[in-house]
Design brief:
The complex is a heterodimer of chains A (205) and B (96). Chain A has 205 residues and is mainly alpha-helical. Chain A contains seven helices and no strands. Chain B is mainly α and 96 residues long. At the A-B interface, helix 1, helix 3 and helix 7 of A face helix 1, helix 2, helix 3 and helix 4 of B.
Chain lengths: 205, 96
């Protein structure tokens, strides 16, 4: 009886932390939602200039990073399935693959930003200052939105690294894997935001 | 009661792979559509594809389809809230 109660309590705890994670995810969606709103308003106002500025972004790197994030989203989802199926080894490998893919995403982003900065295209640079107002706003939004997204990638990698260590030492297991599940949810959020960032910044030209 | 509560939906590896293939196909369609360039409709096309993709991520990867219905209702509520904010903002910008 007392063990039953204990189990019930633990379960409720899991439900509460997952609910908390979802509420946090909603605040994140609204944070990026606000930025998308700014983008939408200025896009309507400066349609031609946004068009010209967006054409300068590298669609290939953007597409490559989309594929990387989609695959990494699948691998982290699979790691949750693996831990539920008592397959610790596979769960660890899947988290590891996710982390490698996340790092690759950041390396691509480094080269993408690096090339722009080399061409003196960065916030507060003289070149940006002399651009038309709409183009200036586009690149400012590009740096801010992809930068904030990259920060989320780094935070996600940190959470998943902790999950990896805890799967390895056995504190995350088939009976208790909320941290991995919530870390996975956070990672899917990062993917979700990119699904909208990619077409709006790279494709709509 | 406790037993019933602890039953969890486990998505198969194959199921996740199928979702990924759908997502990659949609990404390819979206890139090709941008190439063809539908003019004024290209924003709409890209956004519709992005919405379908995010729906797949939310339903399958984030388990909304199999989880407690509360999460689904909350998620829909957030998207409705965002749609209202966008609607009101544009009413203000376009008709002021």
């Amino acid at each position: 009886m007392s063990e039953g109660n204990h189990k019930q309590e633990e379960k409720n705890d899991d439900v509460a932390s997952k609910m908390g994670m979802w509420i946090f995810i909603f605040t994140e969606l609204l944070l990026f939602g606000g930025l998308f709103l700014v983008y939408a308003v200025f896009r309507v106002k400066y349609a031609d200039e946004f068009h010209r500025a967006a054409a300068q972004l590298n669609t290939f790197i953007g597409t490559l990073n989309t594929v990387i994030l989609l695959v990494s989203s699948m691998t982290i989802a699979m790691s949750v399935t693996a831990i539920q199926n008592y397959n610790k080894k596979l769960a660890m490998n899947m988290i590891l693959i996710t982390l490698v893919l996340a790092f690759t995403f950041l390396v691509n982003k480094y080269f993408e930003w690096g090339l722009k900065i080399k061409h003196h295209l960065y916030p507060s640079s003289e070149l940006m200052f002399n651009l038309k107002h709409g183009e200036n706003i586009f690149f400012s939004l590009y740096y801010f939105m992809t930068g904030l997204h990259a920060l989320h990638i780094i935070i996600g990698m940190t959470i998943l690294t902790i999950a990896y260590v805890r799967v390895r030492n056995g504190s995350i297991h088939a009976g208790h894997f909320t941290l991995l599940e919530n870390g996975g949810l956070y990672w899917h959020l990062v993917d979700l935001i990119w699904i909208f960032l990619f077409p709006l910044l790279y494709l709509i030209t | 009661m406790v037993m019933e509560d602890t039953i969890k939906h486990i998505t198969s590896y194959k199921g996740y792979l199928k979702v990924l293939i759908i997502l990659l196909t949609l990404t390819a369609i979206s890139v090709i559509a941008a190439w063809i360039n539908f003019g004024a409709f290209s924003v709409g096309v890209a956004l519709v594809i992005a919405c379908i993709k995010s729906g797949a991520v939310l339903s399958y990867f984030m388990h909304l389809k199999f989880d407690n219905i509360v999460y689904r209702i909350m998620a829909i509520g957030v998207f409705i809230l965002f749609a209202i904010i966008v609607g009101i903002t544009f009413l203000d910008y376009l008709f002021r």
